[in-house]
Design goal:
This protein has five domains: 168 residues, Rossmann fold; 81 residues, Elongation Factor Tu (Ef-tu), domain 3; 111 residues, Beta Barrel (Elongation Factor Tu (Ef-tu), domain 3), CATH 2.40.30.10; 129 residues, Orthogonal Bundle (Arc Repressor Mutant, subunit A), CATH 1.10.10; 122 residues, Arc Repressor Mutant, subunit A, CATH 1.10.10. The strands form nine sheets. It has a six-stranded mixed beta sheet, sandwiched between helices. A six-stranded antiparallel beta barrel has the order 7-8-14-11-10-15. Strands 16-21-19-18-22-23 form a six-stranded antiparallel beta barrel. It has 18 helices and 33 strands. With 634 residues, it is of the alpha+beta class. The longest helix has 21 residues. A hairpin with a 3-residue loop joins strand 7 and strand 8. One of its GO terms (molecular function) is translation elongation factor activity.
Length: 634
């Protein structure tokens, strides 16, 4: 199974036990700063690995709970997949908890687990009251179906139950896309003696590998990933959903700051004007006037700007989504669909949040025409609609794309042409279109399965093509798999021999574990020549498993290192070739059994099977008692 990577956030009011719970789950102390230890509160987000089961890798983010550190909290929860909302049983939901809930929903976090902490401090009646209060508060939120667990971090009560609930919730989630372009919003920057600049963050999408050439945005500085660590352990790569630290070469510490973004391509947009869909908080706030200064939190960036409305002069509490624009004082890196939080700088309060409709906004006129245009962008550009359809259905032809996107034929054809030119998608011959990243994912999966097959069966020529296709056909259309295999053949990444396919550099070989013993058996077979014993007798007393014996037999026969003389007997190729050459040299165009016996001095037990083997391999052709040498094998 493919390794799955997730980030789980701990959120809640100050002193409700988030850091203690993180330590109980992971055995890691996340308060690392001197001020944090002295004051007993988290100032910066802390991170720790949570071990659940094979195939599921989890990073825990312990975010600050104090209202003075709300900006660190926002940066910490940006990019999490699941939140554990920690509520102390002796205090219940507090104002900061409410704000955390709003922020989490604005950032698009869809799954929540409620952890009622410090249960040893209250009786059963109080515990039920707190639980009922939390349920009532969550009733009108996205977390109204959140599971609950009562626990105490110091005694360990409920910790194992929480781990199991976390695992269950994560398994039900779609994990992050590791096949897009790499993107890492930076939330921590520091230096290490003798190593230089190190950045930390959660990988939003894609994969970064050691020695990769990267681009630091918005500055546009090229850097190199000298070293990669995942939770303080060196790694060759980091994938979407993983918490990672990257040691960068080619840049000074002072040239990097929180909010910068590491990417591996120039497809990412640097902008200072974004069109957004804004949802405001569910309680009254002082009206936000046209072009009021606001503070935008997006990814790990925190940037000042002005809000611009096109259908109103000021913003009040409303249940409706507001389409508007934010003009920033600094450039940031965003993509369509990225989530953000909007706060008033003075007095400091959260106004709302939402998502980016258009990363590269322009100046528009006030009025309904602009709102209609923004609403159209909100629904998606033609390319966005095609990408969404291909993400969902994998492979679609022109007619199906028209049905799924509702785009006019002329617009769709032009969009497809542009996407092919930029290689966003590929045209699968006579079948339709599929995303390039889907092909990359299929390619990785096919090559990985072949690699595993070679490791499991090193003596085989390769894996049956039909078997390889069948192994992934539940996920991808067979026509797309056939196309992918043909493309891999053209690119010389795989090779084909009859019905078998293999990695291009691969050739059948003896397994390392049994290499010495098998070489000894082959050596004995060669020494025995035409006096070979029954094949099974060579393994008497040998620890070689039956499956490996069968694999070895096929390997020797298929590679021409041995020939089957009788049903229970094989001979080494040197014995066969010596006899063949001797017989050729001492006979004319044809010969009979007696001549062959006189030349090779073999008994009928070996002579007859050997001559029949020559017939079967088309070295000779038998007519009555004569055998004739075949001209094309001389």
């Amino acid at each position: 199974m493919e390794e799955r990577y997730f980030t789980v956030g701990m959120a809640g009011h100050i002193d409700h036990g988030k850091t203690s719970l993180t330590k109980a789950l992971t055995n890691v102390e996340t308060d690392r700063l001197k001020e944090e230890k002295e004051r007993g509160i988290s100032i910066e987000s802390g991170y720790a690995p949570l071990n659940l089961e094979a195939g599921v890798s989890v990073s825990i983010v312990d975010v600050p709970g104090h209202e003075r550190f709300i900006r660190q909290m926002i940066a910490g929860v940006a990019g999490i997949d699941l939140v554990v909302l920690v509520v102390a049983a002796d205090e219940g939901i507090m104002p900061q908890t409410e704000e955390h809930l709003e922020i989490l929903q604005f950032l698009g976090v869809e799954r929540c687990i409620v952890a009622i902490s410090k249960i040893d401090r209250v009786d059963e009646v109080m515990l039920e009251l707190v639980k009922d209060d939390v349920k009532e508060r969550l009733l009108k939120t996205a977390f109204h179906e959140a599971p609950y667990v009562a626990l105490d971090s110091l005694s360990g009560k409920g910790i194992d139950e929480l781990k199991q609930i976390i695992l269950t919730e994560l398994k039900a989630m779609k994990f992050r896309d590791a096949y897009g372009s790499f993107r890492l919003p930076i939330d921590q920057v520091f230096t290490v003696q003798g190593q230089g600049t190190v950045v930390r963050g959660t990988v939003y999408e894609g994969v970064v590998r050691k020695a990769s050439q990267l681009l630091l945005l918005p500055g546009g500085i090229f850097v190199k990933a000298r070293q990669i660590q995942v939770h303080h352990e060196e790694s060759k790569q980091a994938r979407a959903g993983q918490r990672t630290a990257i040691n960068l070469s080619g840049i000074e510490r002072t040239a990097v700051k929180r909010g910068d973004v590491l990417v591996d391509s120039d497809h990412f947009l640097v902008t200072d004007t974004i069109d957004v869909a804004l949802q405001v908080i569910g309680r009254k706030f002082a009206p936000l006037k046209q072009r009021t200064a606001v503070r935008l939190h997006i990814g790990t960036s925190e940037v000042m700007g002005k809000i611009v409305f096109f259908d109103r002069k000021e913003l009040e509490q409303t249940p409706d989504e507001v389409l508007c624009q934010i003009r920033l004082d600094e450039k940031i890196v965003v993509r369509r669909g990225d989530r953000f939080i909007l706060r008033r700088p003075s007095p400091m309060e959260t106004i709302g949040g939402g998502w980016v409709i258009q990363p590269n906004g322009d100046k528009y006129r006030f009025g309904n025409e602009t709102i209609d245009m923004l609403r159209h962008h909100q629904q998606g550009t033609p390319q966005d609609l095609v990408i969404d359809a291909l993400n969902k259905y994998i492979l679609l032809d022109l007619k199906q794309l028209m049905q799924q996107t509702s785009l006019a034929g002329i617009i769709l054809k032009e969009t497809l042409k542009e996407g092919l030119a930029s290689r966003v998608w590929l045209e699968v011959s006579r079948q339709g279109y599929s995303l390039t990243k889907t092909f990359i994912k299929i390619k990785d999966e096919l090559l990985a399965r072949l690699q595993q097959f070679h490791e499991d069966f090193p003596m085989r020529t390769g894996m049956g093509k039909a078997e390889l296709v069948q192994s992934v056909s539940a996920t991808y259309p067979k026509s797309l798999l056939e196309y992918s295999l043909n493309l891999l053949l053209e690119q010389n990444e795989i090779q084909r021999s009859g019905q078998f396919v293999a990695l291009t550099p691969f050739s059948p070989n003896l397994p390392k574990k049994w290499h010495v013993r098998i070489e000894q058996i082959i050596g004995t077979l060669e020494k025995d020549g035409f006096q070979a014993k029954k094949w099974e007798d060579y393994f008497i007393g040998s620890p070689l498993p039956k499956l490996e014996i069968a694999e070895l037999t096929s390997y020797l026969l298929e590679s021409g290192q041995a020939y089957r003389l009788r049903e229970d007997t094989i001979i080494h190729h040197t014995a066969f070739e010596n006899a063949l050459n001797k017989l050729r040299q001492q006979t004319g165009p044809s010969f009979d059994l007696k001549q062959a016996k006189d030349i090779l001095n073999l008994s009928r037990k070996y002579m007859i099977p050997f001559l029949e083997l020559l017939d079967g391999l088309n070295y000779t052709r038998r007519t009555e008692d004569q055998r004739h040498w075949m001209e094309d094998r001389t």
